[in-house]
Amino acid sequence: MWHFLPLFPVLLSYTYGLPNVVERYVSTGGTCCSLVLNGFSASTKSKLSFRNSTSFTDQQSGRQGYWTQQEASLLPACRLTPTCAEDVSSAVIILAQHNCHFAIRGGGHMSWAGAANIQDGVTIDLGQMKSVVVNDERTITQVGPGARWSDVYSKLSPMDLSVVGGRVSDVGVAGVTLGGGNSFFAPQYGFACDGVANFEVVLASGRIVNANLHSHRDLFRALKGGNNNFGVVTRFDFKTFSKGRVWGGFIVYPYQTLQSQVQALQDFTTASGAGTDPYASVINAYVFGTTGPAVIANQYTYTKPQPYPEILQNFTGFQPQISNSMRIADLLNITDEVGSGTPNGFRQLFGTATIANNASLFIQVLAIAQQVFEPLKTVTDFQASVVLQPIPRTITNKGITSGGNSLGLDGRDDLIFIDLTIQWSLAQDDPVINAAAELFLRRSIAFAKSQNLYNQFLYLNYALQAQDPIAGYGRWNQFFLRQVARKYDRRGVFQRLVPGGFKLWRDDVDCC
After folding, report:
1. Which pTM does this prediction carry?
2. Residue limits of the FAD-binding PCMH-type domain (predicted)?
3. Measured between alpha carbons, how far is 266 from 416 in angstroms, rounded to an integer?
4. Distance CA 183, CA 185 (A)
5. pLDDT tens digits, residue range 247-285?
6. Domains of the chain
7. Separation of alpha carbons 332 and 149, rounded Å
8. 420 φ, ψ to 5°?
């Protein structure tokens, strides 16, 4: 993400105030792989894989591969697959000491190239660190950073337990949680990051620490939304609660129900924000594709085994319905269905904005979407989804009561996250897709601002690469995160050597 390496020592010495410790060279990927190989014991050298090996290929594009073509297209010089925090510590010490560029991969479900992979550098793939362990009291679940939510729910559902986790089974635990993490349980407990009791973290020095309410409290708060800017999290300890089966699924409607849908969304968000019913959540998706008319595909979840609760009846009563999969099931089954709509192997793009809960504004945003995306119907395998996700005050207030997070949402307003997701197949279409995404976001944000209905927050897990979600947390939170980074990573290892993720200091922001 830093494009001017010769100037970087000057920039870093200013922002960190440490001109005497900034190295002016960067080791090559091949050299770095050799250093890691030589620095590991004989028994752990097998954890390093190189291009054309079976394990390397599998982690790139095979069974354990990346979600998008963009990420899979990057070829690191080698991939390291640690199995414990000590492995990660050893690797970070070597890579930092020799100024090696590296990437950190949890589940690999971010869309843009370089988020969790790196060309010609070293990728630390945490995929083998995926244990899920429940304590004897059934109050804490320890989860490895390479786990996906399917691993978590497969373990917890038979025990009638759950944590505040992701809504797509194949998405990684680490990325969701460090980016905030929306959840079916968010109205009850807050974001996924708010449900963490402790982070085990490998710092830039290689030191392994635990961050929680009693130890390294500033780091604990910073990790709740701070992405990969402070270290490598090697274990998440989630607060755990009793939970059996839930009611959930999709109902797909004709686009002609639009006017009723947006009013129902506004009413639901207001009711949820008032605390009317903390068990209900809605994902309100407007889908534009290459064949046929646009449709509205809503995902509803009620975290009790109760069909068609009153708070959702404004939605579920709409007719006609093209399809309806609502049922009582366990959480793994529900999240598997959500994930089935986002298969691996395509090119993908995310983008986001946050707006007020206002039905008239939703209509304008969707009109912009139709204007922008209609000309793209000839793009191979094109599909654009504009997803409106309620973030009522009941969610954002939970962060305050659980030790605080770094997101900057103050709990005063009921909000809506816009999640733009575009899928297509061919790299030759990248320029037109990227331009359309930015045009949609710029126009939607400009209109929301003109109506005084815009919020600066950008949900990191949905952000376009060219967006700056850390700045969207507000100046105070951005300052706080930078101070924590200076304290725990004085050499700026996770700013200058790990280009993936959304950095705390950026000079490449050119969109919305």
Report:
1. 0.94
2. 72-243
3. 9
4. 5
5. 999 999 999 999 999 999 999 999 999 999 999 999 999
6. 5-128 (3.30.43.10), 132-242 (3.30.465.10), 246-472 (3.40.462.20)
7. 8
8. -90, 125
